[in-house]
């Protein structure tokens, strides 16, 4: 049976899926990334690369045939030739410039995609945005990431930077975020700033939301202010990209109704709706396997020489 493998390389775990070309899930799993920041030499540091190669070979042995396509999703900016991650400073040393087609000794291209781009491709293929062609994805976690699709094609931009929605500027007078963007969406709702936003009371979004649910008025003020910033970010993206839907995933989306209900109310106030047209806001469906599914889909598309 023809099948594709998709691998999503993260800082702590690698998620993988095996799927048919039509998207039927055959198997999935996860294994430790083995990213050891105490080392600086890429061959020692990049144990995850060997683990992905070993897993691919083991799965092919069990299946009795090699995969027809293999795709990789990873953090960072993918190279324009799709063979590697061109820019990923600070972690996963050895990832930048690693040519996965050569490393895996594949006769076919092993296409590499930014992990958020891959997650959107997965959600459009088998998740919340199935069948849609104009979609924005926001991933809310420690930081805020995302991706966008226009007319069924991923927006990658000139150097692969497109989709970094977390670095949208909401307040030009605000403090700079990790990229230097002042008053960014990421700093307004990302878990990276919870302690700052709550003046040291909480160190995680989960703790903040639990306090909000328990009736802590101070926590409620901070939480709703964060969601207001998210609503402003969403409506800005809607005005620029005019999508059919905005898909929201990531760890913070686990807040469920405590996130989506006030977000809906606030979008009623701030979203521009010409002719009454309202953009759907959808919770992501694929969870932590969205990137692996997107990587597999990207590999399947590449064998058909299409453009995601």
Helix % is: 25-40%
Q: According to CATH, what is the class of the largest domain?
A: Alpha Beta
Beta content: 15-25%
The SSE string, one letter per element, is EEEHHEEEHEHEEEHHHHEHEH
Description:
With 308 residues, the protein is α/β, with parallel strands linked by helices. It folds into 2 domains: 4-118 and 288-303, 2-Layer Sandwich (Nucleotidyltransferase, domain 5); 132-284, Nucleotidyltransferase, domain 5, CATH 3.30.420.40. It is built from 10 helices and 12 strands. The chain has a 5-stranded mixed beta sheet, with helices on both faces. Helix 8 packs across helix 9 (257-270). The chain is globular and about 60 Å long.
Question: What's this, in brief?
Answer:
The chain is α/β, with parallel strands linked by helices.
Detail the topology: elements first, then pairings.
Blueprint: E1 4-9, E2 13-19, E3 25-32, H1 42-45, H2 47-63, E4 69-74, E5 77-78, E6 85-87, H3 100-103, E7 112-114, H4 115-126, E8 135-140, E9 144-150, E10 153-154, H5 185-189, H6 194-197, H7 205-213, H8 217-241, E11 245-249, H9 257-270, E12 280-283, H10 290-303
Provide keyphrases for this structure.
alpha/beta, Nucleotidyltransferase, domain 5, 2 domains, 35% helix, globular
């Amino acid at each position: 049976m023809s099948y594709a493998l998709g691998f999503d390389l993260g800082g702590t775990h690698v998620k993988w899926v095996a799927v048919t070309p039509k998207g039927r899930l055959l198997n999935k799993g996860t294994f430790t990334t083995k990213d050891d920041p105490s080392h600086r030499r890429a061959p020692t540091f990049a144990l995850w690369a060997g683990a992905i190669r070993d897993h691919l070979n083991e799965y092919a042995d069990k299946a009795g045939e090699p995969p027809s396509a293999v795709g990789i999703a990873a953090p960072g900016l993918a190279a324009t030739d799709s063979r590697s991650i061109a820019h990923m400073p600070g972690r996963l040393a050895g990832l930048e410039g690693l040519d996965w087609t050569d490393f895996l000794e594949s006769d076919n291209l092993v296409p590499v995609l930014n992990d958020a781009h891959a997650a959107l491709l997965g959600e459009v293929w088998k998740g919340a945005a199935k069948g849609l062609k104009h979609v924005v994805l926001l991933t809310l976690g420690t930081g805020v990431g995302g991706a966008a699709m226009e007319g069924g094609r991923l927006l990658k931009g000139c150097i692969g930077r497109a989709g970094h929605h977390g670095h949208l500027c909401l307040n030009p007078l605000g403090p700079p975020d990790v990229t230097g963007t002042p008053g960014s969406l990421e700093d307004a709702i990302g878990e990276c700033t919870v302690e700052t936003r709550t003046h040291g009371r909480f160190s995680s979004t989960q703790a903040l939301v639990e306090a909000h649910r328990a009736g802590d008025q101070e926590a409620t003020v901070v939480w709703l202010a964060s969601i207001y910033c998210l609503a402003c970010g969403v409506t800005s993206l809607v005005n620029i990209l005019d999508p059919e839907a905005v898909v929201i995933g990531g760890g913070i989306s686990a807040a469920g109704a405590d996130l989506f209900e006030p977000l809906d109310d606030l979008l009623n106030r701030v979203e521009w709706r010409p002719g009454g047209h309202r953009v759907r806001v959808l919770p992501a469906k694929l969870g932590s396997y969205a990137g692996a599914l997107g990587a597999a889909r990207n590999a399947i598309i590449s064998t058909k020489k299409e453009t995601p």
